[in-house]
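Internal tracking record. Fields below are filled automatically when a chain is submitted to the structure queue. Please do not edit lines marked as system-generated. If the sequence contains nonstandard residues, flag them in the REMARKS field before resubmitting.
Queue: standard
Priority: normal
Entity type: single polypeptide chain
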Amino acid sequence: MSGLIVFIVALTGSLLVFEEEIDAFINPEFYKVSTIGTEKMPVDLYVNAIRKQYAITELDRIQTYENPQRSIIISGTDAQKNDQIFSVDPYTGKVLATIPEKSRFFSIVLDLHRHLILGEAGKFITGCSCLIFVFMLLSGLILWWPKKIKNLKQRLTVKWSASFKRVNWDFHSTFGFYTFIILLIISLTGLTWSFKWFESGMYLLADGTAEKPSAKVENPTKIDPKLDKTFFYQNLFSKTDSIYRYKGDTQIRIPSDTINSIMVIKLNLEKSIPNISSMAYFDKYTGKILKIKPYESFSNGDKVRRLIYPIHTGSIYGYPTKILAFLVCLFAITLPITGLLIWYRKQ
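SYSTEM-GENERATED OUTPUT FOLLOWS
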């Protein structure tokens, strides 16, 4: 059973490695504008237009990009409680495309990858299967290891001219050895999303405490004072840019409750390693700045945690590591099949 789960997770994982590239090819309108204008419109103008036209009752996120060709991505919830994603031309304010978040192809692929589309139960199943896979990798290495050093060369090559049984065994064990480290890293980092204890253990090793630092700041204003908010969100972007002057993509995250403040995250594109971001927190109603949290102030645990995603997806060093992760995932798809054939023939 765990082999089937590994097959599904590896297959979906290979797709997710190139999620942005594939999605941009299938849905170019979600990623690029047809014409680069001279000046971008204030965000609030098209945010308010979308609210009215599509009956958006609750904004969730507003994502802007440093690349002048990129569209603005806005997500929110409509009156029917459906989460919607909008792609907007920042120069004209025109909505280029819209799709329910649950209907997006890669939302389904991600849900299948992490939860098998079974919610929390699926999350537990994939986590347990991942743990079993880690054990199989370690035990497989022990089984592969030659008893005599003179047999090492034989273990490092596939004898393609041999019988199917021998080729199947060699393919499984030899390429399993070559991909061992990468598969182990991908599997271990994947456990972060399945088990709270694994993430807590990571913080314990990095910070000396299993307690994860809170990523939220309480909002001091509990009731909307109905102030003028003509350029409310645009001012948040401007204030964040004045604090963090590096080039980067910026995302506004708007809480649905009155307790938490607005969090603005600015990704630093000047860094060679991805996912290096700094944060700023603003009052949800007044736009007053409450707290700044530059990346340098993050705990060691938080810094490690932010590296988990690019390591897991292979994006840590761009296309070279993405291609490597993709090829390793493709090989991982074959492991349950070749392993089943080895087991069946032994019976």
